[in-house]
Amino acid sequence: MQLFAARAFDPPGDIPALRKQVRALVAAHEHRWTLEQRTNNWFTFDAEFSRAMGAAGLVGMTWPKQYGGHERHSLERYVVLEEMLALGAPVGLHWIADRQTGPLLLRYGTETQRQKYLPGMARGEIYACIGLSEPNAGSDLASVRTAARRTPEGWRVNGQKVWTSGAHHCHAALTLVRTEEGSQRHAGLSQLMIDLDTPGITIRPIVDMTGTEHFNEIFFEDVLLPLDALVGPEGDGWKQVTAELALERSGPERYLSCHALLAALIDAVGPEPDDATAQAIGRLTSELWTLRQMSMACAAKLAAGEDPNVEAALVKDLGNAFEQELPRVVQSLITDDLADHGDLARLTAWLLVASPSFSLRGGTPEVLRGIIARGLGVR
Ligand SMILES: Cc1cc2nc3c(=O)[nH]c(=O)nc-3n(C[C@H](O)[C@H](O)[C@H](O)COP(=O)(O)OP(=O)(O)OC[C@H]3O[C@@H](n4cnc5c(N)ncnc54)[C@H](O)[C@@H]3O)c2cc1C
């Protein structure tokens, strides 16, 4: 099996001009963001910035124009994302809609659903979240128990989701539910697009170890939804969710989510660091560069219509390890001098607490390594 086979990462158009456009947009808004927000930018919510990105044509970039998109190449979108992440711009509100809910609606949604959600998403004004995990169904999503029963009035939904990032700011949740009573495992699951202002829905934020409220519990108590909330054929939920997960594992967010710390370290030590610091920065940078090449190879494969499932799992697993190591390396380098550099010490402390979650969101190492082993035929 040939992993990361050379596929050129060759986006069309004027890429330097695109990077310049993104940097100018970020520069116009960055005065509002704290350093902590910049190192946690895909869980930082800034509606003004999301709208500005929409107005600049940088959300829904690859979607058809008839749904508010811009019909640009997926590798141009990759470039925009890379810039946003490297600069620590808060993409939290429109992020999920742009990355996975919108593309899923384009693939499986009805015309009515596309018209209802996609143009607002592309404007950076309609936000969506991912309703997969439940208290007893995280890695093992086939154990989902939230039930939707078909009635003459519509779907009746009862159950609970957990760890739902951004739900307290979102308009809708693409939610995995069991639509066939008594069904087991992968069978009988479907996806519903649930408007979160529907009566019977309670969203309760969960405070994480950093004191941040970015994910939530969602409770569904006898929630009545129109029958056309169903996305794709009834019973195809498992297939659709697998496709959704493939969209979220290999992007630059898996190695650039706390890039602000590396940049802060380089700024703090200046042009003539001591040998140990220079070596550490060199090693981190070469790891970062390797991850970037791997991630871009996945993006090129996805753009060519291939399914780099194993490569994406490798990028996520190695990217998580890199991002968890970064604050530990910086901590080991912080001398009295650097500790005087308050921002660096503060950011490092914050990331030491935040980074354990990086290898949970989007799939744990054990689960990813299972995928890799299966893909390599050793399991
Ligand atoms: C910051 C953050 C944001 C998140 N956002 C969302 C979101 O928006 N929407 C959403 O639906 N979910 C979200 N999640 C949930 C996340 O995807 C789950 O936490 C993850 O799938 C793990 O599930 P769990 O917590 O139930 O742990 P479990 O599945 O119970 O796993 C516990 C441990 O057992 C191991 N394990 C489980 N199964 C196996 C196996 N078969 N073989 C070997 N080891 C195994 C795991 O690797 C892990 O170490 C988020 C999580 C975090 C941390």
The total of helices stands at 13
Query: Which shape, going by the Cα principal axes?
Result: globular
Poorly predicted parts: none
Text of the CATH class of the largest domain: Mainly Alpha
CATH homologous superfamily heading of the largest domain: Butyryl-CoA Dehydrogenase, subunit A, domain 3
CATH architecture of the largest domain: Up-down Bundle
Largest sheet: 4 strands, mixed
Spatially, the strands of the biggest sheet line up as 1-4-5-8
Instruction: State the distance separating the first and last CA atoms.
Output: 15 Å
Output the helix-strand order: HHHHHHEEEEEEEEHHHHHHH
Walkthrough of the structure:
The protein is of the alpha+beta class. It has three domains: about 15-125, Butyryl-Coa Dehydrogenase, subunit A, domain 1, CATH 1.10.540.10; about 130-240, Butyryl-CoA Dehydrogenase, subunit A, domain 2, CATH 2.40.110.10; about 250-375, Up-down Bundle (Butyryl-CoA Dehydrogenase, subunit A, domain 3), CATH 1.20.140. Helices cover about 45% and strands about 15% of the residues. The protein contains 13 helices and eight strands. The protein has helices at about 15-30, 35-40, 45-55, 75-85, 95-110, 110-120, 235-245, 260-270, 275-305, 310-335, 335-340, 340-355, 365-375, and strands at about 130, 145-150, 155-160, 170-180, 190-195, 200-205, 215-225, 230. The chain has a four-stranded mixed β-sheet with strand order 1-4-5-8, with helices on one face. Strands 2-3-7-6 form a four-stranded antiparallel β-sheet, with no helix packed on it. A hairpin with a 2-residue loop joins β2 (about 145-150) and β3. α5 (about 95-110) runs antiparallel to α6 and α8 runs antiparallel to α12. The model has no long low-confidence stretch (mean pLDDT about 95). The structure holds flavin-adenine dinucleotide. Flavin-adenine dinucleotide binds next to β1 and α13.
